[in-house]
Structures are given as C-alpha cells and as structure tokens.
C-alpha cells in the first residue's frame, strides 16, 4: 500500500502563492531599507532647514501673553 502512494506523490516545486509573497516581501524590505539609508544620508549631508523668522505681531502677542500670565498678583 505504501508503494501505491509513493508513486503518486510528485514534488511540484514552490507554491505559487509563496513565490508571490516572497517577491512582495522582498520589494517591501528593499523599499524600507532604501528609505532608511536615504534618511541617514540626508541627516548627515544636507544642511539643517532654516526656521522662518517670527513676525513682529507674533512677538508682541507672545510678550503680552507672558505679561498677562499671572493676573492675580
């Protein structure tokens, strides 16, 4: 009986679904690793972004807020 079954079992190779999963997983890992490498390169090589200058109106508002912070005293 074991001889009957051993002849019918054939190795078909890898499952097609597994191949698709491996390809998508490989592309995703490649994408993430590439992004990480670009990010670290940009952190080291590119200059820091300059902050926008604060307008005079905003400066006045901030000073007023700080001055009126403690109204009870």
From TrEMBL:
It holds the Pfam family S1FA. Coiled coil: none annotated. Keywords: DNA-binding, Membrane, Nucleus, Repressor, Transcription, Transcription regulation, Transmembrane, Transmembrane helix. InterPro entries: S1FA_DNA-bd. Residues 46-63 have a biased composition (Basic residues). The keyword Transmembrane applies. One of its GO terms (molecular function) is DNA binding. The chain crosses the membrane at residues 18-42. GO terms for cellular component: nucleus. It is found in: Nucleus. Residues 46-73 are annotated as: Disordered. DNA-binding protein that specifically recognizes a negative element (S1F) within the RPS1 promoter. Belongs to the S1FA transcription factor family. This is DNA-binding protein S1FA2. It comes from Cardamine amara subsp. amara.
């Amino acid at each position: 009986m074991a001889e009957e079954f051993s002849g019918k079992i054939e190795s078909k190779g890898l499952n097609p679904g597994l191949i698709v999963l491996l390809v998508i997983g490989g592309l995703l890992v490649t994408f993430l690793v590439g992004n990480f490498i670009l990010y670290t390169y940009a952190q080291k090589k590119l200059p820091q972004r300059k902050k926008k200058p604060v307008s005079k109106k905003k400066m006045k508002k901030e000073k007023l807020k700080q001055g009126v912070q403690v109204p009870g005293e």
